[in-house]
Amino acid sequence: MNTPIPSKIKLHKASRILELRYADGRGFELPAEFLRVHSPSAEVQGHGRPVLQTGKQNVALVGIEPAGNYALKLIFDDGHDSG
Q1: Is residue 9 classed as helix, strand or coil in its secondary structure?
Q2: What is the Cα–Cα distance from 47 to 18, expressed in whole angstroms?
Q3: Using one digit for the tens of pLDDT, what is the confidence trace for 18-59?
Q4: Taking the alpha carbons of 41, 42, 43, 48 in that order, is the dihedral positive or negative?
Q5: Alpha-carbon distance 8 to 30, whole Å?
Q6: Distance of CA 45 to the CA centre of its chain
Q7: What is the largest CA-CA distance in the chain?
């Protein structure tokens, strides 16, 4: 598996943006709301029947932790931290 690994990971708390940069010059700025409502967790994906997430416009990321060899665990201020 050839999973690209970010060369830079930065959480911009004031703007609620997670910034990812890669060695090849690609970069992404992902809003916390987007990450929260598109979480791969069972709460959001509903075991094959996605559950609409509402009231997440003002959700913020309060932490990021490594998970396994290549993933990130995102911790949101509404208590969500799985997926």
Answers
A1: strand
A2: 26
A3: 999 999 999 999 999 999 998 888 777 877 788 778 888 899
A4: positive
A5: 14
A6: 15
A7: 37
